[in-house]
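Re-run with default settings, no changes from the original entry. Doing this only to confirm the output is reproducible before filing.
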Amino acid sequence: MVQKKVPQRMCVGCQEMKTKKELLRIVRSPEGEIFIDPTGKKAGRGAYVCKAMACMEAAYKGKRLEKALKQSVSPEVYAQIQSQLESL
């Protein structure tokens, strides 16, 4: 029996490779809107962050999320993402 490959992605906060299911996908839609994608399948450019607040803070301080999404991210969007992370 052939084993399937488990998709791996890199967290923009801690720079560690983890399985796709362990990470949270943040998407920049073709219209330029930035939001969390719980399904992991929405159209647009994606970046992955661990579900830990420390990783999100590291991504914010180093502007890594902006580099991954190739667009500036407003503080309001960061606040929305952090509030959604706290609810998880």
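The longest strand covers residues 23-28. Residues 53 and 85 are 7 Å apart (CA to CA).
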